[in-house]
Structure formats: structure tokens, C-alpha cells
Write a structure and sequence with these properties.
Number of strands: 2
CATH class: Mainly Alpha
Organism: Methylocystis borbori
Number of domains: 1
Strand content: under 5%
Family: Belongs to the FPP/GGPP synthase family.
Radius of gyration: 19 Å
Keywords: Isoprene biosynthesis, Magnesium, Metal-binding, Transferase
Order of helices and strands: HHHHEEHHHHHHHHHHH
GO molecular function, one term: (2E,6E)-farnesyl diphosphate synthase activity
InterPro entries: Isoprenoid_synthase_dom_sf, Polyprenyl_synt, Polyprenyl_synt_CS, Prenyl_diphosphate_synthase
Distance between the termini: 27 Å
Structural class: mainly alpha
Number of helices: 15
CATH superfamily: Farnesyl Diphosphate Synthase
CATH architecture: Orthogonal Bundle
Strand order of the largest sheet: 1-2
CATH topology: Farnesyl Diphosphate Synthase
């Protein structure tokens, strides 16, 4: 497969993953109560659907689906794990946009959840998505093997919680009012938690679902870590260079709030060079899996992360 064909196949699979994820989330967030539930309040459900449906590239679900595909795992198992991860991601966006956090009015080209509803409902919608994610991933419909489900639950909790995404958000907020700016190492650690942890989990989930060998799982983890770091630098560059209409969210907010970014620490040229080096690191990690051409689409995903415009 040549470069053009690989890029075209990547876009086809990314779009297919987004379509499948949207349909699955729509079904999961239906009005009918599940066994053990009493009822699903209509306004809360509407806010959860608003926060999670109708937008986004669905990169994280794509990574779950494609990493699982490396081990011939397709269908409901990978899709449900992908949906659980996307629920976590969407909850984090709804909460990050709140006035007490990043105070944003625009997300994916439309009003943020707290603007479309209200702050209390946005908080509850995030709480609902977070909790439902673990409901979905722990359900036997995701995998028949309880050990696999438990491994997924543990890995997702570690990626999303105190030592992962939530902890990274806390460090990010602390940095805005700190007496001295974060160092390079401190910024890298914060970004690895806030952004990188869920992207790393996406490929770790595929390895768990597929029963990957230890060396393959480690290589995929390294890929996920490098991809996550490249994604965050690309996001920082877009915030510095992009415009609000193209991004679908407010541009320039990092500098306005004094956020710790690699663009601020290194400058644009050095940040771009670091981003590109991380893409090479990610593709090198894929080669270490020994899975050959099967990893080509994930390698293309790393290049896409660096080249994206929104």
C-alpha cells in the first residue's frame, strides 16, 4: 500500500469508527431504563446526549477499534470499549468547559453543555457519562471473560482518575496561578496525565481485548504515550496559530490564561520539531510489535495527529 492509499484507508476507517461510535452511543443513551435503573430523567439524558453526540473526530474510539483489530478482535467488544472511553472523554470536556475550570462558551462549533443547559445540569451530565462508562465496560456484553473486563475497568480508572486525566487537570489549573511557571519536565508530566493518559488507554484497551503478548502490549503503550504527547503539542500549536471558526472552540485561550504549554516554553519552531520527533517515536514503537503492515493504519494515525488543523 503506497502513502496515498494508506492515507485514504486511514480516513475511511476513521470515518467508519466515528459513524459506528455515534450510532452505538445513540443506542446506549436511549430513554429506556436498564435493569437496575429506576428511570432516566429526560433533561439529564438530553444533556448527556448533547455532550457526547454529534461532533468530534472520535480519534480515541478509532484507536481502540484499530488496536483491537491488530489481534483480530472486531465487533461489539471493541466498539463498547471505544464508547466507554468516549464517554469519559466527553464528560471531561463538559466539566473542563465550566466557569470554575476553563470557562469556555464554545465546543465543537456550538455552545458548551453548561451554556446549552445550565451549570448544574452540565456537572450532572458529566457525572452521568463518567459512571455510565464503567457500566458499559463492566457489562458482559463487552466481553465474556470477567478477567478481561476487570483489566479494562482497572486500566480505564487509572487513566481517567487521580494519577491520570483528573490529576493532570488539577496540575493544569494549579499552574495558572503558580508563583513560577512549570518547568519543561513538569509540563510534560502534566500533559501526559491530562491528555496522554486516555490516548494511551485507547491502545492498551486493544491489547487487553486481544490478549496481546507482553512485548506487544509494551510497544503499543509506548506508541500511545508518544501519540498522546504529539497530540497535545499539536493542540498547543493550533491554539496559538488557529482561529476560532476552524477550531470549533476559542483560539488563543492558553496564552490568555497563562497555561503551561510547550509552545510557550520552547517556541513554535521547537514545538513543531518535538511533535514530529514524537510521531517518529510512535511509528518506531509500532515496528517493535512485530505485526508488520497490520500497524500501517495506526502509523498513519500518528501522522494525522501532527498534521491536523482542528
Amino acid at each position: 500500500m503506497n502513502d496515498a492509499a494508506r492515507a485514504e484507508e486511514f480516513r475511511r476507517r476513521l470515518d467508519a469508527a466515528a459513524e459506528a461510535t455515534e450510532a452505538a452511543l445513540d443506542a446506549l443513551l436511549a430513554p429506556a431504563a436498564l435493569p437496575g435503573e429506576v428511570t432516566r430523567p429526560a433533561r439529564l439524558l438530553d444533556a448527556m446526549r448533547y455532550a457526547s453526540l454529534g461532533g468530534g473526530k472520535r480519534l480515541r474510539p478509532f484507536l481502540v477499534i484499530e488496536s483491537a483489530r491488530l489481534f483480530d478482535v472486531t465487533g461489539e467488544s471493541a466498539l463498547r470499549a471505544a464508547c466507554a472511553l468516549e464517554m469519559i472523554h466527553c464528560y471531561s470536556l463538559a466539566h473542563d468547559d465550566l466557569p470554575a475550570m476553563d470557562d469556555d462558551d464554545l465546543r465543537r462549533g456550538r455552545p458548551t453543555t453548561h451554556k446549552a443547559f445550565d451549570e448544574a445540569t452540565a456537572i450532572l451530565a458529566g457525572d452521568g457519562l463518567l459512571t455510565y462508562a464503567f457500566d458499559v465496560i463492566a457489562d458482559s456484553a463487552t466481553h465474556a471473560d470477567a478477567g478481561v473486563r476487570a483489566a479494562l475497568v482497572l486500566a480505564l480508572a487509572r487513566a481517567a482518575g487521580l494519577g491520570g486525566m483528573v490529576g493532570g487537570q488539577a496540575l493544569d489549573l494549579e499552574a495558572e496561578t503558580a508563583a513560577t511557571p512549570l518547568t519543561l519536565d513538569e509540563t510534560l508530566r502534566m500533559q501526559a496525565m491530562k491528555t496522554g493518559a486516555l490516548l494511551r488507554f485507547a491502545v492498551d484497551a486493544g491489547a487487553i481485548l486481544g490478549g496481546a503478548a507482553a512485548n506487544q502490549a509494551r510497544a503499543l503503550t509506548r506508541y500511545g504515550e508518544a501519540l498522546g504527547a504529539a497530540f497535545q503539542i499539536a493542540d498547543d500549536i493550533l491554539d496559538a496559530e488557529g482561529d476560532t471558526a476552524a477550531l470549533g472552540k476559542r483560539a488563543g485561550k492558553d496564552a490568555d490564561r497563562g497555561k503551561a504549554t510547550l509552545v510557550g516554553l520552547l517556541g513554535l519552531d521547537a514545538a513543531r520539531a518535538r511533535r514530529d520527533a514524537l510521531v517518529e517515536e510512535a511509528t518506531a514503537a509500532l515496528r517493535e510489535t512485530g505485526l508488520g503492515e497490520a500497524t500501517a493504519i495506526l502509523a498513519e494515525a500518528a501522522r494525522f495527529v501532527a498534521a491536523r488543523r482542528n
